[in-house]
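Quarterly update, task 2.4: zinc ion-bound model.
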Amino acid sequence: MVTTGAHLTRKMVWNLLSEIPDPDIPVISITELGIVRDVEVLQDDKIVVTLTPSYSGCPAMQLFKEDIKAVLRQYGAKEVEVKIIHSPAWTTDWLSKEAKEKMRKHGIAPPEDWCGTAVKLFGDAKRKITCPHCGKQDTKLTSQFGSTPCKALWFCNGCNQPFEYFKCY
Amino acid sequence: MNTKDAVYNFCLRMADNNLISGQRLTEWCSRGPILEEDLAMTNLALDLFGQAESFFDYAASLNGNVKSADDLAFLRSERQYYNNLLVEQPNGDFAVTMMKQFLFSAFQKLMYEALTESNDDTIKGISTKALKEAKYHFRHSSEWVIRLGKGTKESHERVQLAINELWRFTTDMFEMNATDEELISTGISANLETIYGKWNFVVGEILKEATLAIPDAAKIIKGGCNGMHTEHLGHILTEMQYLQRAYPGATW
Ligand SMILES: [Zn+2]
């Protein structure tokens, strides 16, 4: 934990950022999500954080900016700039194994390993996603679009429960 | 035309296509034929608004943010919008909307694919991101076009009527002006003639699968990239810009 008063170092900033949750999946932090691309500590406690959006229309981006500024100011940053870059583009491959496991425990099926392989038309309906509730694979796609742009809706025939699947990007 | 002006115009064209297309999709909000499609269309719109914002942000930064991204989105008049005529067409029934999405997303996907090779780093970055989304959009609308085409007699008739109505606006997506000339020569954007060839192939394959006939190329209507629009754009802007015009500088 970082204490107030000391000058912030790059590592301290990373640690602070790793405590800011993704509002849609609160068990995952913004660093685990992979959207924090760089941290620079400049003179006079000025800090520049570089983010890349997970999705073009991600409504949480504005919130991330505010959260980052608030947290870093609280720990002594005089000025915080949040820069947005688009390249390299965010990909679900940047989610760590641990992050995926946390997601599963939270009830959201994480992106499957076949992410990145081409999907034929109507191919999604033939895929099997492992149910995050019961672990069975007897599941079916309800809709490619769900409560947020990053998730699809699925249904498990094993436990008769709907669940969300974090789509491959 | 110098390169900076060309990039600016091009960003507006890309942003306007996304903005107007997204605005049309939101008209379906709470009116979708099924809940899943209601969600789908509003999610598609969200992606498109995000892409629009990225291009507006870049355009604004090119002019020192004298006009903000919001100003560009909401405070221009009809002749200053460079979107393609296809995206401003009314939604009609679900078949018309899905056909419109299909014809447009096929174009977007190919366009973004080409722009991932752009010499402009920002355009390249935005496009690499947007391409992932455009692929989902293209798949979603392709599946619907096939489902409707091979569905019932009525769904087939309706989706055939949809393409008959929309086809005359498709050539407009590939019209080029001085902006394109400059950006092709500098390796920033793609030659739309090349994209047109690919688009015809991709779209033709899906339409064949959907057992739909491609209408005659008669009565082609063009002009979007030069700010010449059908009467529908004015109506969209009236609704979309109401708040910003009635309450200038409103924030919340
Ligand atoms: Zn289950």
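Highlight for this quarter: Chain B touches chain A at residues 36-37, 39-40, 43-44, 46-51, 53-54, 121-122, 124-126, 128-130, 132-133, 136, 139-140, 142-143, 146 (CB under 8 Å).
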